[in-house]
Design goal:
The chain is α/β, with parallel strands linked by helices. It is built from 13 helices and 10 strands. The protein has a 6-stranded mixed beta sheet with strand order 4-3-5-10-6-9, sandwiched between helices. It is globular, with a radius of gyration of 23 Å.
Length: about 325
C-alpha cells in the first residue's frame, strides 16, 4: 500500500547504499536510482548527497527518512491489527528493550517463544530505559521490557523478575576475594558507569545517595552499553556496578570477578505497555510466555552457583 518511491528511498536511507538497497529490494541499481530521483523531483530538492563514493542524507532527507519510518510502522500496525481482529495467524509485534535486557535476557526468551510462533515477526528496538519508555508512550513499540523505575502514570508497569547489581572487576584486583563490598571500600578506585537515561545508572546513583554518598563516585568513563563496560573493566580501567544477569559468560570464563554489595542492591525488570491500547493477541501471548519464563529463570541463583564453582577451583 505504501508509495513505492518512498519505500525505495527508505531502504537506501537505512543502508546508505544504492547497491545494497537494490539487493535488498531485488531491483536493479538503475531502477533504485530512478525511484529516488522521482521522489526528489516530487519534493523539488535533493534527498541524498553523493560525494567521494559515499551516500549521506541531506537535511531534508533526514526529515523524510524520520517521517517515512513512522509511516511504515503505522502501515505495519494497521496490517497487524486487521489480521489479528479477523483471526489470521501471524503478523508482527514491535518490542522494545533496554540494553541490559536485550543483550542478556531476550535472546533466550525470544528464541524459545519463536519455536511456538513461527509466523509472528518480532521487531526489536533497543535503547536505554528512558528512550525505550518514550517509545512505548509514543506508540512506537507495543511492549517493552526495561530495568529501573518507570514514573509515567499513563503507562502500565508490571514487574517481571528481580535482578541483583554487583561490583565487577578483573580477577586479579585487590578486592576480588572479598565476600561483599561496602561503598566506602570502592571510593578509592575509578568508576565506569552507563550514560544518562540508563536505568542501571539511575539505580546505582540512588543507592549511593542512600548510603550517604550524595557526591557520588569518581567517574572516569561513561559508556553506552553493558558490553563496552565489561570490556573496559577487563582492561583494568576501573570498577563498575552492573546486572548479575549480564556477566554469566565472563564469570564462567574467568574474565571478570563479581562481588555483592553491602547492603545488597536489587532492582526489578518490568514490562511496560500503554494502559488503554488495543490489546493484540500476539502481545498477550508474549506477555504470558515472558511471565512464565521469568518465574522459571533466576540470574541471582546462577551467579551464586558460578561463584561457588570458581572458588572451588
Amino acid at each position: 500500500m505504501a508509495d513505492r518511491r518512498l519505500k525505495v528511498f527508505n531502504t537506501v536511507a537505512r543502508l546508505l547504499s544504492f547497491t545494497k538497497a537494490a539487493e535488498a529490494l531485488h531491483m536493479t541499481q538503475p531502477a533504485v536510482t530512478f525511484q529516488v530521483r522521482q521522489l526528489e523531483e516530487h519534493f523539488d530538492t535533493r534527498l541524498f548527497d553523493r560525494t567521494h563514493n559515499r551516500v549521506t542524507l541531506t537535511d531534508v532527507g533526514h526529515v523524510v527518512y524520520e517521517i517515512s519510518e513512522r509511516m511504515f510502522e503505522l502501515y505495519d500496525e494497521m496490517d497487524r491489527r486487521v489480521k489479528e481482529m479477523t483471526g489470521e495467524v501471524g503478523g508482527s509485534l514491535n518490542l522494545g528493550a533496554s540494553m541490559t535486557i536485550a543483550e542478556n535476557m531476550l535472546p533466550a526468551l525470544l528464541g524459545k517463544f519463536r519455536v511456538k510462533h513461527r509466523d509472528l515477526a518480532i521487531r526489536l528496538k533497543v535503547g536505554n530505559t528512558e528512550t525505550v519508555v518514550a517509545m512505548v508512550e509514543h506508540n512506537v513499540v507495543d511492549l517493552a521490557i526495561v530495568e529501573g523505575t518507570v514514573t509515567n502514570k499513563n503507562l502500565l508497569v508490571e514487574t517481571c523478575r528481580r535482578d541483583e547489581l554487583v561490583v565487577i572487576m578483573p580477577p586479579d584486583h585487590v578486592l576480588a576475594d572479598a565476600a561483599e563490598l561496602g561503598i566506602e571500600q570502592l571510593m578509592p578506585y575509578d568508576f565506569i558507569c552507563r550514560e544518562e537515561g540508563s536505568g542501571t545508572r539511575e539505580i546505582v546513583l540512588s543507592y549511593l545517595v542512600d548510603q550517604g554518598y550524595s557526591e557520588g563516585w569518581d567517574v572516569c568513563m561513561e559508556l553506552g552499553s553493558p558490553e563496552a563496560i565489561k570490556g573496559a573493566v577487563q582492561a583494568g580501567m576501573g570498577l563498575s556496578i552492573m546486572s548479575s544477569a549480564g556477566i554469566t559468560k565472563e564469570l564462567k570464563l574467568g574474565l571478570l570477578k563479581a562481588v555483592p554489595l553491602k547492603p545488597r542492591l536489587f532492582r526489578d525488570f518490568s514490562f511496560v505497555r500503554q494502559r488503554h491500547k488495543f490489546r493484540l493477541p500476539a502481545m498477550e501471548d508474549l506477555l504470558e510466555f515472558s511471565r512464565d519464563y521469568c518465574q522459571r529463570s533466576s540470574p541471582m541463583l546462577d551467579l551464586e552457583l558460578i561463584q561457588k564453582a570458581t572458588n572451588g577451583r
